[in-house]
Design brief:
60% helix, 19 helices, 353 residues, mainly alpha, three-stranded mixed β-sheet
Length: 353
C-alpha cells in the first residue's frame, strides 16, 4: 500500500523486477481525473498559446514571439503525457492511452508506435554496456573511443558537443529523424510512421494556407526548438552523470540500473511542473507503470529511493562535460581522460571489435 516502506537498501543483492512491480503497484494505478487535469495543464494551454501567437502575428511578430517560451514549457509537458501514454500508464484504459498518445504525437512531431517500441528497449537495457544503441544517448567507452580513427573520433566529438546536442539536436531529434523509417522497423511500424508524417504535413499545410509560411515557421519552430533542447538535456542527465551505473550484461541488474543508473534531478517547482516530474527518473525506471503525477509520492513514501544519485540544476548543466565511460574507474569522464588512457586499452578494444 502507499506509505509502506521498502526495507531494502540500494547497492544490495539485486532483486527481481517482479519484486518491484508488486511493491510499487499501488502507485501505478492511473487516475482518469488526474489524467484529465494533466491534459488541461499541458495540451490545452499549448494549443491556446499557439492560437494566440497566430492571432498576434499579423499585428506584430514581437507580440507573438514572447509566447513561444511558455508554449515551449507546455509542449514539453505535452511530451510527458505522450511518454506516459507510451508506457500505458497515463489512463487506466489501454485504448485511451493509445488514442491520447497518437493525438499528442501530432503535437510533438513523433510517431507514437515506433517511439513506444524504442523507449521500451531503452528501459530494458539502460546501463547495459553490451546492449547500447536504441533509445540512448550514444556513449562510447574510453577504450572504444581510443580505438577509433581520427575521423570517427571527430564524428563522436561533434555528436557529444553541447552546441550540436542542444541547438542542432532538436532539429534532428524532433523534426527530421522521426520522419524517417528506421532500419529495424517492421511493416506495422513503417505504416504508422508514414501515417504520422502525412498527418503532420496535412496540419502544417492547413496552417500555411490560413496564415502563410512565415507565420507557420516562426510560430511552430521556436517552441519546438526550445522544448526539444530542454528535452534532450533532460534525457542526457537522466543517465549521464558522475558515478553512473554501467555494467556488462552478465553483471547487469534491473534494480541497480534504476537506483544507480538513473538520476534524481531536483529542479525548482516550476521547472518540475513543466517537466512533468520526469526528474524523478530513478522511480520511473524502477516502475515505468507509475504515471508522472504519482512519481513524487512514490519517491517520498519509500526510503529506498532516498539514497540515489541526486543532481541539482547546476549539476545537470555540468554533466554536459562528461563524454566517455571509463570501465577501469567505473565512471563517466571527459575527453581529457581518453588522452591519459594507455594505448594497450585501445588495442584491446580494437581486437575485441
Amino acid at each position: 500500500m502507499p506509505g509502506t516502506t521498502i526495507a531494502v537498501e540500494p547497492n544490495t543483492d539485486p532483486l527481481p523486477a517482479s519484486f518491484w512491480r508488486e511493491r510499487l503497484a499501488p502507485y501505478g494505478k492511473a487516475d482518469v481525473r488526474r489524467g484529465m487535469l494533466d491534459l488541461a495543464t499541458s495540451v490545452v494551454p499549448y494549443l491556446i498559446l499557439t492560437a494566440a501567437m497566430y492571432i498576434l502575428f499579423p499585428i506584430s511578430i514581437w507580440l507573438a514571439l514572447p509566447l513561444a517560451i511558455p508554449a515551449a514549457g507546455f509542449l514539453l509537458r505535452t511530451f510527458i503525457v505522450f511518454h506516459d501514454c507510451s508506457h500505458g500508464s497515463f489512463f487506466p484504459n489501454r485504448t485511451a492511452n493509445k488514442l491520447t498518445g497518437i493525438c499528442c504525437a501530432l503535437l510533438v512531431y513523433t510517431p507514437f508506435h515506433s517511439w513506444r517500441h524504442e523507449h521500451a528497449v531503452h528501459h530494458a537495457t539502460a546501463g547495459d554496456l553490451d546492449e547500447r544503441g536504441m533509445g540512448d544517448v550514444d556513449t562510447l567507452t574510453v577504450a572504444e573511443y581510443q580505438a577509433r580513427s581520427p575521423l570517427r573520433k571527430l564524428e563522436y566529438r561533434l555528436l557529444r558537443n553541447p552546441f550540436v546536442m542542444l541547438v542542432i539536436g532538436p532539429l534532428w531529434a524532433l523534426l527530421l529523424e522521426p520522419r524517417l523509417v528506421p532500419a529495424w522497423a517492421r511493416k506495422r511500424f513503417w505504416r504508422v510512421i508514414i501515417a504520422t508524417d502525412v498527418a503532420i504535413v496535412a496540419c502544417l499545410t492547413g496552417l500555411y494556407l490560413i496564415a502563410g509560411w512565415q507565420a507557420v515557421l516562426l510560430i511552430q519552430l521556436p517552441p519546438a526548438m526550445i522544448a526539444g533542447a530542454v528535452g534532450i538535456w533532460l534525457f542526457y542527465v537522466q543517465h549521464q552523470f558522475e558515478g553512473v551505473y554501467w555494467q556488462r550484461h552478465d553483471s547487469w541488474s534491473y534494480a541497480d540500473s534504476a537506483l544507480r543508473g538513473s538520476s534524481h534531478l531536483k529542479l525548482p517547482k516550476i521547472l518540475q511542473f513543466f517537466t512533468g516530474n520526469i526528474g524523478l527518473h530513478h522511480v520511473h525506471h524502477m516502475s515505468p507503470r507509475i504515471p508522472n503525477y504519482n512519481l513524487q509520492r512514490a519517491h517520498d513514501e519509500n526510503p529506498v529511493f532516498h539514497d540515489v544519485p541526486t543532481l541539482t540544476l547546476w549539476d545537470g548543466i555540468r554533466a554536459l562535460r562528461l563524454k566517455l565511460y571509463d570501465e577501469t574507474s567505473g565512471t563517466l569522464v571527459g575527453f581529457a581522460a581518453a588522452r591519459r588512457t594507455s594505448p594497450h586499452a585501445a588495442r584491446s578494444a580494437s581486437a575485441s571489435g
